[in-house]
Structures are given as structure tokens and as C-alpha cells.
Amino acid sequence: MTKTDILSPADITKLIKTFYDKLLVSSIKHYFVHLNLNEHLPRVDSFWNATIFPEYAYGQNLMERHAQMNLQKEDFKIWLALFWETVDELYSGENAEVTKNRAASIAYIMQKKLL
Q: Are 107 and 80 in contact (CB under 8 A)?
């Protein structure tokens, strides 16, 4: 099967849904199992659409939402590994690489600010 690049909001939705399916059975699932995914996933989609596609905007405070989670350094490693795995499983191309690079930057910045 030939993979395409991340080209649309539908691709972001597929990425985020697949990623959260993995998170919910991972060793860091305790951060996510209590979430109302019908409310949460559209916000995550919105964030990643704004991150990848310049025509979208995201207006919420990412750090504020995560500051109360008591995240540990190892949690960021697991999150990032699962995110990259999901991108690589589904997509290939420039936007896929940009998405993985932005995820790494976000994880790094969040660690610096939250730990």
C-alpha cells in the first residue's frame, strides 16, 4: 500500500483518532481514559490543523491544559514514540515529516516548561 502525505483536515482526524487508540492502551493511558473524546479529539484536531496548515488557527492555551497533569519525562518519550509511529504507519511525505518534527518540538518545549 502506497502512503500519501498529510494533505487535509481529514488526514489529521485519521492521524489523531489512530494515535488516541494507541494512547488508550499504552502505559500512559491514565492521562487519557477519563477524557470525553467526543469533546477532546476535535480540539486536538484543531490544534494539529493549525500546526500543519497555515489557513487554520488555534486559540487555546496548550500549556495551561497540560500543567495540571503531573507529566513525567518518560511520559513525553512514550507520547512522542507513539505519535511518530502513528504518523509513519499512515503517511509519508513532507507534511508527515513536518508533523513529526513539530511533535518533537512541542514535547521538548512542554518538558522545559512543565518539568
A: yes
Give me the amino acid identity at 55. Answer: E
pLDDT tens readout for residues 21-69: 999 999 999 999 999 999 999 999 999 999 999 898 887 777 777 777 8
DSSP 50-79: HHH-TT----S-HHHHHHTT---HHHHHHH
The answer to whether 79 and 72 are in contact (CB under 8 A) is: no
Are 20 and 109 spatial neighbours (Cβ–Cβ below 8 Å)? no
Domain 9-114 -> CATH class? mainly alpha
Contact 46, 58 (CB under 8 A): yes
- Closest CA relative to residue 113, chosen from 50, 66, 52, 78: 66
Domain boundaries in the chain?
9-114
